[in-house]
Amino acid sequence: MKRFVFLCLIVIVFASCAKNNVVECSVQDAAFGAPRALMAKSAATNSALSVDSENFSEVSESAFERKLIKNGNISVEVQNLQKAEDSVSSWSKSFGGYIESSNVNPTSCSFTVKIPSGKFDEAMEAAGKFGSLKNRSVSVQDVSEQYYDLKGRLETRKLLRDKLSGYLKQATSMQDMLKIERELNSVQSEIESMEGRMNRLSNQIEYSSIEVFVSLPYNTTEGGFKFPDLGDGVRHFFANILIFFTMLVTAIFYAIICGVPLCAVLALLYWLLFGKVGIVRKIINKLKN
Fold it and tell me: What does each C-alpha distance from 272 to 54, 264, 287 come to in angstroms?
């Protein structure tokens, strides 16, 4: 009986120790395993979001409108640059746009004008009315894929940032908190860079650029004075020389074409009348006799 009681006590002691070990291990997992699990979950979430980002552009292309960047170029000849500058300013404002930059010199000026994309075609059509239109061209760039891909990646990064912020609140050790903070800062930096690119791209889509070049008539000032053109004088001089030699060659050519037969006819007449045959000579000799 004593032996049985002793064996029971040993069993109870071992069971108690085993239970304590289990509890201690559970506490350690709770203290250290949870942050590691959070980091693993963060990596899995990041991977999943990256996969979603790759597929997002394909869905977006069919689900959203196309994004276009429109650019125009206009060249106009005017009689007064100041009036033209005022006309360009009024023209841009009438379509809800503005002059982004300008460059003015004594005989011409150029402007970079921003016009809402919805008014682009109408603005291009009306642009030539403040002068004599010399040139007008339009180019369109489709950036739909780039826009929606960037938008999708930006949204996935924001989701990842929110999840990392939640994991940071649940972290229990300083080491794990630092790891999550580093990853969170990296994601935030990517978000800020993407937002900057997104803003620039959106601005290019929403506001089209039109380059307007305004100039006075060639070699003329606003007062109507024409500058002496040395280049024109030189060109006229060489043109006259070329005309002279052309006429000389033409004259020689006509002389050859027309002179040879004429000389031949004259030689024949001389031969018949005064030469070996000498018809006239013979007639004269007979009259003398």
Answer: 106, 12, 18
